[in-house]
Specification:
single chain, 306 residues, alpha+beta, eight-stranded antiparallel sheet, 6 helices
Length: 306
């Protein structure tokens, strides 16, 4: 369709009607939080499925609470608003959904105090692959991941993604597809916008939430699938950089990235340089679940078209 519709300050409106002042605190200081959600189109069922929308909006509300941004809508109301927005845009393709909550006050000064101009917005856009790669070659970044007592990664704060952008730019400029960040203790943390998993001696290993990572919703699903569907032990523990070099498998997870294999780290081949069998099984399960093909996981999905 020709027109794009968004949600802004309590209403669904045409996107061209929305504007934000250059004086806004979110423009000047990045005082906001956001979420990333996907809806998957199943052409056989002619249905668009919102994936774990309630869980994403519950995290969205917690992010806003942590930085004193007021969101009047409940998580359940935001799910309904998003479903209506997708229908209004008539999306019948896999779609990315971006909710934002931010300080829209126009006064000068770095402050999160006051809620009278707090603003909620949601926009959507068709998105298949986040990065047009089937396999990823990555490098450990020289940039250190921001810490929980600096700018907490679990809040998905807009300002925090300067850290991610710098790491990604460094990696791409040096000929890699993506970066991996270490935390201030030198432990493996995550990618700029992705959680990370390793496979070693038949176990799935991932950094713990205390190591300055985003508590990923796709991350949790991957852990649940490994335990419940594949019968694989899952271990949350700190990971040393060199463990990336001697793992049997390494892969990313995330809403935008989905589940994606890493075949090379710091110009060192991961195992045989090909996506591993555990990644492949998890990827297949993830696809089936998100496209509404596994009945026992239907409670993870919100059908958009009635």
């Amino acid at each position: 369709m020709d027109k794009s519709y968004v949600y802004f300050n309590g209403k669904i409106v045409e996107e061209e009607q929305v504007s934000i002042s250059i004086r806004s605190k979110v423009v000047n200081y990045g005082l906001g939080v956001f979420e990333g959600i996907r809806a998957y189109w199943n052409p056989d069922q002619e249905q668009l499925f919102g994936f774990k929308m309630l869980e994403h909006y519950e995290r969205f509300l917690l992010s806003a609470k942590a930085v004193n941004i007021e969101i009047k809508e409940t998580a359940e109301e935001l799910v309904e608003i998003t479903a209506e927005l997708l229908r209004k845009n008539e999306f019948k393709t896999t779609t990315y959904i971006r909710p934002l909550a931010f300080k829209n006050d126009l006064s000068i000064g770095v402050s999160l105090k006051g809620n009278e101009n707090d603003t909620v917005a949601i926009f959507c856009q068709p998105l298949d692959k986040y990065i047009e790669k089937d396999e990823f070659r990555v490098a450990v970044s020289s940039w250190t991941r921001i810490a929980d007592n600096m700018l907490p990664p679990r809040t998905k704060a807009t300002a925090g993604y300067m850290n991610s952008a710098l790491a990604n730019m460094e990696a791409v400029d040096n000929g890699f597809d993506e970066a991996i960040l270490l935390n201030r203790h030198g432990n493996v943390c995550e990618g700029p916008g992705e959680n990370i998993f390793l496979v070693k001696r038949g176990a799935l290993i991932t950094p713990p939430v205390a190591d300055d990572i985003l508590e990923g919703i796709t991350r949790q699903l991957v852990m649940d699938l490994a335990k419940n569907e594949l019968g694989i032990p899952v271990i949350e523990r700190s990971v040393a950089r060199t463990e990336l070099y001697n793992s049997e498998e390494v892969f990313f997870s995330g809403t935008a990235m989905e589940v994606a294999p890493i075949v090379e780290v710091d110009r060192r081949m991961v195992h045989n340089g090909k996506p591993g069998p555990i990644y492949k099984e998890l990827k297949e399960l993830f696809y089936a679940i998100t496209h509404g093909e596994k009945e026992e996981y239907k409670d993870s999905l919100t059908p958009i078209y009635k």
